[in-house]
Amino acid sequence: MLAQTAFAQGKSFKDDMAERTRACTACHGEQGRAGPDGYYPRLAGKPAGYLFNQLKNFQEGRRHYNLMTRLVDPLSDAYLQEMAVYFANLKLPYPPAVQPKERASDRVLQQGKKLALEGDSSRGVPACNTCHGAQLTGVQANVPGLLGLPLDYLNAQLGAWQTLQRKAASPDCMRDIVKQLNSEDLVAVATWLSTQNMPLNSSPALKMAEPLKAPWRCGSAPELSKVQP
Q1: Angle formed by the axes of helices 48-60 and 77-88, to 10°?
Q2: Measured between alpha carbons, how far is 42 from 50 in angstroms, rounded to an integer?
Q3: Nearest Cα residue to 47 out of 95, 87, 75
Q4: What is the largest CA-CA distance in the chain?
Q5: pLDDT at 227 (0 to 100)
Q6: Domains detected in the chain
Q7: Residue range 173-212, pLDDT digits in tens
Q8: Whole-angstrom Cα distance, residue 217 to residue 155?
Q9: What is the mean pLDDT of residues 136-164?
Q10: Among 47, 58, 108, 224, which is disulfide-ready with 104 (CB 3.0 to 4.6 Å)?
Q11: Reported pTM
């Protein structure tokens, strides 16, 4: 219908991925830079495997948002992969981190920083940078970065993991990790992550420094448990 309207008005329709993903960028911002309200995350530069996995999660009911499900439901795996690769290859600069309207306490920030960079061995909780890269910019090909995301989005996603509204392929390592954390922990780590600026090199790491140790296994990123050359 949109193509017919453009034709009727004498306008050319450029059949490329930028044009075909307008339904994505309507919410996720121009070129997938992120929506303005804090709930539609950035797509540009995310690992292609991660983006593909999320599209499949919406399609197969592991993530729940009716508009996304309706958009991706009729699409083939090959087309979802094409979309994921398109956004992954958009290497765009990140804006500075947005500081919260009410400054978080030093205690909250320190708690969040410790969980992100050190974890909590007393509860068997690995640090965020164990899987999400030393600089928290993600790891190819299936692990997203955690920086450059708004506080509201981080809170919403961690809360969704905690309440089982968001899932991943089994074994679901994120679900198992979040189960070890309380709401105060989740708010602290989300707050600290949201206040950190992206490093100069924002690209996902090419590989993990070392494989993920047992008992942790991630069905959506099986490469984390393997020794990589």
Answers
A1: 140
A2: 12
A3: 87
A4: 66
A5: 58
A6: 7-92 (1.10.760.10), 96-220 (1.10.760.10)
A7: 999 999 999 999 999 999 999 999 999 999 999 988 788 8
A8: 24
A9: 96
A10: 108
A11: 0.90
